[in-house]
Give the backbone structure.
Amino acid sequence: MGGIREIVAVIVPADSSVGRAAQAIDDMSAHLPPPDDPRACPLCSTQSWPCARFENAAHHVQAAGVRLGELVPPDLHTRLWPLARP
Ligand SMILES: [Zn+2]
């Protein structure tokens, strides 16, 4: 039950927008819910998704100039409104 969302690792320059947000992007990805249970954070069992730690990381990502929509799977976009821009 729960399922696991597949991930990939990429290499980017440390001084790029994504590079500067790398830790926050890692944190965001760790707090993404599984594909078959979009309300469940795998790390924050007492909160429904998006959990506070995801939102905190998302704010750091946005502050670095990276769009959340590029990092969050499409099936979760509707749950992120108004955090994610269409
Ligand atoms: Zn969480």
Residues 17-80 form one domain. The chain has four helices and no strands. The CA atoms of residues 39 and 48 lie 5 Å apart.
